Amino acid sequence: MADPGWLTSASRRRALVRLAGLMAGSPLAAALAQSDPRPLGGHHRVLSLAEMQTSFDFEPVFFGNVPAPIYDYTAHGDGSEFTLRRNRQAFDWVDIVPARAAVPASQVDLSSEFLGVAMKFPIVVAPTAAMVPLHPDGEIGMFKAASAASNTLMMLSINTSTPYAKVAPAVPGGTLWGQFYPLEKLDASQRSMDTYQNAGAGGIIVTVDQQASYYERTQQDRNLGGRVLGAGGGRGAGGGAAAPTGAARYRINGFRLWYSWDYIDAMRKMIKGKLVIKGILDPQDARLAIEHGADAIIVSNHGGRSMDYGPSTLEVLPEIVAAVNGRIPILFDSGVRRGADIFKALALGANAVMIGRTTRWGLAAFGAPGAQRLIEMLQQELVQVAAAAGYTKLSDIDKTAVKANFV
To answer: Of 89, 184, 207, 383, which has the fewest beta carbons less than 10 angstroms from its beta carbon?
Structure first.
């Protein structure tokens, strides 16, 4: 846990108040918030943790707490960010059908089981890289937050800033799985699997959506004398930097675009527990994932970070659900910000929903207590939506609960 003084120190609050004033007068303020209908830029002070009301409230505090490159890494997407925006817009194209008779929230029970993991809510903390730069609590703080929020399952990124073997023991009884990016050399893949599984990981998530793209803005700022991360750890004047060479000049990642189903077959033999394939956007790929031994799939476009001008995950979810036909569980991510978003994905066939950027907002804003509060907000928002729509059980939420008008 962070020192409680970090949350309330006078110097921190003065800095954030100044930041709020700058954001209010900046033409970039609207672009920084992700579809927040009422951004906080016009406020004269930054809200405390106790005053947070929605996930969107955390983002400007997150922005004020970290250097620009750390914010950019979390906030931005691939290319023109069309897919990043479409992920959010797609939720606007799905209406929730009003209930003939709402039910009391106290009667709503959204508990379920995912591959042997008991879940009070169908919400999972998605794997996201390098949390220590967000806040000193880092991955251990996120795991504590997830576990405190009704023992929420957390998936740890292979690009973690804290080794799995140190994160897992931090919460006895917590549930932590590991995410992995394919490596062409099978011996290297085996070593990674051994590291996870020897540390007790019950499930392995293999990401196949090309990996996240490199966000180039930091390099451009540095070369053009803009404001980037300085030597002192804050925002400082940029200087010249060595230009990338070879394929990197065109943002081509050598780790991408070689994946094959033969590789998944090899991984299936290495993984002793559950194999989850993340990055499925096509019904045929969903069928093939089942054929090649996947225990579950994740419908994901990496939050709009893997390929620009692709479909939103919500748009392709129904046809993937139809292709899977109940044979394995389906998780869903990308663009989730509210309990209503989660309800819509569940109604369109997801068994559970993963949250990534939003949990990072909470952690970076207030450490582990912020991440916990954010997760609990989404849980309670989901309960309220289900109650208003007339559903008391997760198994009863189906496509009749919504009307989709995708464009």
So the answer is: 184
The string of pLDDT tens digits covering residues 64-113 is 999 888 898 899 888 889 999 999 999 999 999 998 888 999 999 999 99
Greatest CA separation found in the chain? 64
Rounded CA gap, 71 and 364, in Å?
Answer: 9
Would you state the torsion angle of the CA atoms of residues 86, 88, 89, 93, taken in this order, to the nearest 10 degrees?
Answer: 120
- pTM: predicted TM-score of the whole model, two decimal places: 0.84
| Per-residue pLDDT at 29 exceeds 90 | no
Please tell me the predicted confidence (pLDDT) of residue 78. 85
Mind telling me the catalytic residues? Answer: 302
- pLDDT > 50? residue 304: yes
Neighbours of 6 (CB within 10 A): 15
The confidence band for 33, taking pLDDT boundaries of 50, 70 and 90, is very low
Fold for domain 4-216+251-404?
A: TIM Barrel (3.20.20)
Is residue 274 within 8 Å of residue 289, measured between CB atoms? no
Which tokens hold the place of 385? Answer: 């939506």
DSSP states of 27-50? TTHHHHSSS-SS-GGG-SSPPPGG
What length does the chain have? Answer: 407
